[in-house]
Amino acid sequence: MSYWEDLPPAEDLPSGQLASRRLSAADAERLIVRHWAHPEAGAEQHRLAALLDSATAPPTDQELSGQAAAVAAFVLVTGDRAARSRRGASRRVMAITAGIVAASMAAGFSGAAAADALPGPIQELAHQTFGAPAPGPSVPGVKPEHTPGRPGYMSGATKGKGNKGTPPGLAKKAGGMPPGQAKKGVSSSPETATGSSSPQRSKLLFSGLTKQYEPRHASPAPWPWSSGLSAKTSRNRPSQPGPQRA
Amino acid sequence: MLHAAARGDEAAFARLWRDNQPPLVRFLRVLISEHAEDVASEVWLEVVRGLARFRGGEQEFRAWLFTTARRRVIDAHRYAARRPATVTSDIRDLDQPSPGDAAAAALERISTQAALELIATLPREQAEIVALRVIAGLDVARVAQIVGKQPGAVRVASHRALRALAATLAAAADREATR
Predict the structure, then answer these.
(1) Which among B110, B130, B156 has the least Cβ separation from residue A54?
(2) Residues of A in contact with B158 (CB under 8 A)
(3) What is the pTM of this model?
(4) Is the ipTM of this complex over 0.90?
(5) Which of A40, A175, B163, B166 could be stapled to A44 by a disulfide with Cβ–Cβ 3.0 to 4.6 Å?
């Protein structure tokens, strides 16, 4: 129950008491809230009611004269705020787009590094930086588009058969045999004669290539893997029996 | 209306301004007779800047508006105290009506300006409470919150203020009767 509801109603009081008594707290509250005095109340309450009523009289034209300026200020402030929010929204969109692009690039780079599909130096860098697989054997001097793992690198005959390191020119030649030798019926490896493919075949191909590109008088091999691989394949070649000989 | 104005609706803001500008200017006239319109403009500018963040109903908005106005009044009083304007006694007497004159004017014309001048003759704290309760139409709890007092203290102050006004009006009426 509010304070106002606790007040005794002025209408219930005797008229003589109303006229003679001093302004009570209840009367003051009633005057403030309603600006009203009982008709039989004292003159002071009527004067007060008139005073408070005139203090809350309807607004004059002079009091409302600044409306246009106030609305203009409102338009200025809210328009400026709307423009700022639009600029902020476009900045947020740009930041989100840049983030998505950066994340996509990072994911693509990581995926390519994990699949050992990056160019040699970059793959080596990825390997040293965040532990991506070490770069596989590549051919020095071969153009970057022949890097293993590139789309279109493998021919249809050799695709998926474990000889990723074979350059396309050699893969097309049915085992890397020069055309002249193929006519003579001399095969460079046992597998090429039968048309079969195996990891050994790709190793043999690499051995031929690495021998071709090896520097003649270089004492330490610039690519340790190439000398090791060529030595390994050269060791394996004579001892491996081919189906033709059998 | 309030939410529309907060979203930037000009017509809604114009209605809000028309509803609240008259009591705001009258409140300021009670507390600082000079430059009330200028201070009201500053108050509205501050309100417009914060309107988008405002949450609440009409009573809460009015309480916020008059709280802002009261802060501006305090700032204006501080500014005046730092840079006092030296006025001659004659001008001061002419500028500020005595309670008797204001009461007589209120009795004769019962104009809004005379009523505000009479309320302004009260002690500052009482004048502020009466203005907030009568002119701004705020309840005891909100006025207590604005002026930083207990609700009981606000009721006592408003009661004393009305008794003082009644006494002033009675004295003015007696003077009118003896003429």
Answers:
(1) B110
(2) 28-29, 32
(3) 0.56
(4) no
(5) B166
